[in-house]
Write a structure and sequence with these properties.
There is one protein chain. The protein is an alpha+beta fold. The chain has a single domain, classed as 2-Layer Sandwich (HIT family, subunit A). The chain is 20% helix and 21% strand. A 5-stranded antiparallel beta sheet has the order 1-2-3-5-4, with helices on one face. The protein starts with 5 loop residues before the first helix and ends in a 9-residue tail after the last strand. The radius of gyration is 14 Å and the shape is globular. Bound molecules: guanosine-5'-monophosphate. Guanosine-5'-monophosphate binds next to β2. Guanosine-5'-monophosphate (5GP) binds next to β2.
Length: 114
């Protein structure tokens, strides 16, 4: 069997993380290497490797992630805006093979990203 990802281990509370939001379907925690004053990682509890691995049955949980992102942004008072990013695959720099959104805020972000 494949080794559990670091994010699966956070879901299972095998390794610590600063969890800021949790519900039945997802979890959000502070990134260990923040790139902005607010840098959260939002993940489904269901194991989905990346956007490439989403199947039609996963659509409700993926939609739920977006609503959770908005809820978190509202709870944190991110009225100046925020950026949601998901890296998919090698060229995008995906390191952890568990679908996740980076929720970044607290400073202006340039476009296009590097
Ligand atoms: P990716 O490059 O896969 O899109 O992003 C993975 C993110 O997970 C990176 O921003 C990295 O800092 C974060 N990360 C990696 N390992 C850990 C960890 O053990 N704990 C936390 N909180 N974040 C992690």
């Amino acid at each position: 069997m494949a080794e559990p990802t670091i994010f699966k281990r956070i879901i299972d509370r095998e390794i610590p993380a600063k969890i800021v939001y949790e519900d039945d379907f997802c979890l959000a925690f502070e990134d260990i290497n923040p790139r902005a004053p607010v840098h959260l990682i939002l993940i489904p509890k269901q194991e989905i490797a990346s956007v490439d691995a989403i199947s039609p049955e996963d659509v409700p949980v993926v939609g739920h992630l977006l609503l959770a992102a908005r809820t978190i942004a509202q709870q944190l008072g991110l009225t100046n805006g925020y950026r949601l990013v998901t890296n998919c695959g090698k060229d995008a720099g995906q390191e952890v093979m568990h679908l996740h959104f980076h929720l970044l805020a607290g400073r202006p972000f340039s476009w296009p990203p590097g």
